[in-house]
Write a structure and sequence with these properties.
By secondary structure, this protein is mostly helical. It is 61% helix and 0% strand. It has helices at residues 3-12, 16-22, 29-48, 57-76, 80-83, 87-90, 101-105. Homotrimer; associates with NifD.
Length: 114
């Protein structure tokens, strides 16, 4: 396999199941059905933490397989709410801001006094 072949193979994968099967990872359908986007996002996050991608396609394949297996395993032993993969799970509560109506009315020409 060449680097180009590997990149082409990756570009053709479209689902979590496709990725898991391509990298020969055994999986439970029920876990993937519930967590597919979380698994793929965690896989993407793990790839982003790699400082330097190996040069050989076989080493790249092995690294990707290890990282995908780790991402899948995260959701075998935990759940999406605990893992907090997506930003929406880590967002803080919105801040309460109070603006007096009189301040707003000052911005409107010919507005009645409040």
């Amino acid at each position: 396999m060449t680097n180009e072949d590997f990149e082409l193979d990756l570009s053709e994968l479209s689902s979590a199941e496709d990725f898991l099967e391509y990298f020969d990872i055994d999986y439970e359908r029920s876990i993937v059905q519930v967590n597919r986007l979380h698994i793929l996002q965690r896989f993407h996050d793990y790839l982003g933490q790699v400082d330097e991608m190996p040069a050989s396609p076989d080493a790249k394949w092995a690294l990707h397989a290890d990282l995908l297996k780790a991402a899948y395993t995260d959701f075998v032993t935990s759940d999406a709410a605990t893992e907090k993969v997506f930003r929406v799970f880590t967002m803080k509560e919105p801040k309460q801001v109070a603006v007096p109506l009189s301040d707003l009315m000052e911005q409107v020409p010919n507005a009645p006094a409040v």
